Amino acid sequence: MPIVRRSEAETHEIHGARFVSYAAPRTGSRELCAWRGEIPAGTKAPAHTVLHLLTGELLITLDGRTERVTAGDTVIVNPGATLAVENPTDRTATSWVTTSVGLTAELADGTVLTPPWAN
Fold it and tell me: With 0-12 CB in 10 A as exposed, 13-18 as middle and 19+ as buried, what is 32?
């Protein structure tokens, strides 16, 4: 039975945000990846698939429409959608993200991001 202990979770930092990976192929998950994201105050973060906000609040722009989300809200991002995540507050926001194995994201500058915590 695959169990990932808190002390065994892998931490990655990119674009000013921290991602703590729990479920991925390297930890025994065949189809899903899941991680906790920490988005510091004033940070804009890269794309996700399903983002559940645990603490804080964020501005989410999905396909050109911007909404403020708060703790307990969930954002569903379908394939091909354009997503921007911003924390305009003075506190870190914490999210739980779930996606299929093999996530890639194209950043605004055209860079294709293949997050190590999602593969």
Answer: middle
